[in-house]
């Protein structure tokens, strides 16, 4: 059995950003689905003081329908 990797869509919004930072600070590995990678990196560094975290895996996506993921 594999280890579940928390995935966060909407990681650049205020709630998503907070959840990503909280998970990283607790030692979790997070996969963040984003349209704008730089927006997430900048917000994490500026608002959460997190830069280039080794447990953060950013996946750049285009506009997709998230309904199948729910």
Structure, explained:
- With 70 residues, the protein is of the alpha/beta class.
- Helices cover 34% and strands 19% of the residues.
- The chain has 2 helices and 3 strands; from the N terminus they run E-H-E-H-E.
- The model has no long low-confidence stretch (mean pLDDT 83).
Structure characteristics:
70 residues; alpha/beta
Question: What's the helix and strand layout?
Answer:
Blueprint: E1 7-9, H1 14-25, E2 30-34, H2 37-48, E3 56-60
Parallel strand pairs: 1-2, 2-3
What's the short story on this structure?
By secondary structure, the protein is α/β, with parallel strands linked by helices.
Computed structural class? alpha/beta
| Terminus-to-terminus distance | 22 Å
Overall geometry? globular
Poorly predicted sequence stretches spanning 5 or more consecutive residues:
none
Approximately what portion of the residues adopt beta-strand conformation?
A: 15-25%
Radius of gyration: 12 Å
Number of β-strand runs: 3
* Major sheet: 3 strands, parallel
The DSSP helix count reads: 2
């Amino acid at each position: 059995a594999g280890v579940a990797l928390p995935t966060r869509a909407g990681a650049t919004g205020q709630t998503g950003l907070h959840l990503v930072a909280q998970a990283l600070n607790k030692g979790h590995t997070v996969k963040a689905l984003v349209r704008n990678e730089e927006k997430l990196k900048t917000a994490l560094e500026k608002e959460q003081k997190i830069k280039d975290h080794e447990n953060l895996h950013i996946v750049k996506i285009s506009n997709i329908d998230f309904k199948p993921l729910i």
